[in-house]
Amino acid sequence: MRKRIFSLSLAAAMVFLSLAGCSQTGQEAAQAPVQDSTQASTQAETEAPSAPAETAGPDTNYTYADTIAWDGQYDVVVVGFGGAGAVASATAADEGARVLLVEKAPEGHEGGNTRVCGQMFAYGAEDEEGTYEYYQALAGGHSIPEELLRVYTKNVAHMYDVMEELTGIPKSEYFDWTGSILGSMSPEYPEFPNAEKISLNALHEGFSDGFLWQTLRGLVTDRSDKIDVWFESPATHLIQDPQTKTILGVQVERDGNVLNIRADNGVILATGGFEMTRRWWRTIWDFPIMLSAEDFTTQVTACVWPRRWEPTYGIWKPTKESAVWPELLFPFRMSTLQVLPPLPETAALSL
Asked: If you ran DSSP here, which 8-state letter would residue 85 be given?
């Protein structure tokens, strides 16, 4: 089961192309319905809970996990409700697992990059070796474990079959954007080996319409009897056995409480990249300000355009009542986007 979950969730995590950007305890907490709770930013780190329960007697089978005061227990815990998290949760549920999916965003704002991307996926034309060679070149000399890259590129090569099995949408309905204004962006590096095998595709003849995200989100909502979803519940630390290094579970902030959730078969991190963590922006990009999808409205209003914005699935556009320009449909209609002067240092975010 672990291999299957890893294979599908890895594929989903990597191929969606961004074209924009409880106070209960025990089993009561494990079965808690989705409710609003306090949101906090998070960076998953390996750390044991600071307040373990009292140790037991001289039982030779006693383990570090027995010292933890667990507030809930699941077969699998998935961190991050985007495309990868949705696929991992659904796959685990289909294998018989009881799943907890935790997400730091409020309900209705989940989705990560998958929600705001162009709703397309990469496809390697059934050529496993060719896809492997292309992505090996794409690594730019960085060392990628071969086994990991093989799993990834095998799924990219057969993504039509993967998507059909996953979504139930016949692959005869998929649309290849090769040769169009969209297809010209793929492959990104036509000089790489087997680049002609890599193409942009969609589940239907559409783009930037939220169709892919809504389809993947439905994989979770359709399995609500097997998948519990906690919004505004960021994971803050992994719980690890200090001796065996086994990941036993995860700490989750929910309704102002820190809960220790046991994961019998593992924790899957599907939290996206560093672009969703403000404190990494300046470190990695060395930019004075960067915008993430979840902060787009507040940051744009405060730092760039003094106008009200509203999110839509797959695109961001200003409201008609307050639009600076007639419309902004990224990455097309770029002629409507004025070039603004550099922001003063006082307007930059404090990261």
From this structure: H
Residue 203: other Cβ atoms inside 10 A: 21
Q: Is pLDDT at 344 greater than 50 in this prediction?
A: no
Q: Closest by alpha carbon to 257, among 100, 60, 3, 69?
A: 69
- CB-based burial label for 307 (10 Å; 0-12, 13-18, 19+): middle
For the ranges 119-123, 315-319, 334-338, the maximum mean pLDDT occurs at 119-123
3-class state of residue 77 by DSSP: strand
249 and 263 Cβ atoms separated by less than 8 Å? yes
Question: In degrees, to the nearest 5, what angle opens at C-alpha 40 toward C-alphas 37 and 46?
Answer: 115
Cis omega before residue 234 (within 30°)? no
Range 52-77 average pLDDT: 80
Is the pLDDT at 65 greater than 80? The verdict is: yes
Distance (Å, rounded) from C-alpha 249 to C-alpha 251? 7
Spatial contact of 99 and 230, defined as CB atoms under 8 Å apart: no
Best CA proximity match to 166, nearest among 19, 314, 9, 13: 9
Alpha-carbon distance 332 to 327, whole Å? 10
Q: Which DSSP category does 341 fall into?
A: P
Each residue of 219-278: pLDDT tens digit?
999 999 999 999 999 999 999 999 999 999 999 999 999 999 999 999 999 988 666 666
Residue appearing with tokens 């609003």: 36
Which pLDDT belongs to residue 281? Answer: 62
8 Å CB contact between 326 and 336? yes
Q: 175 versus 23: which is more confidently predicted?
A: 175
Amino acid code (one letter) for 110: E
Q: pTM score, two decimals? A: 0.68
Closest CA to 263 of 252, 273, 254, 272: 252
**Structural tokens at position 304:** 């760039």
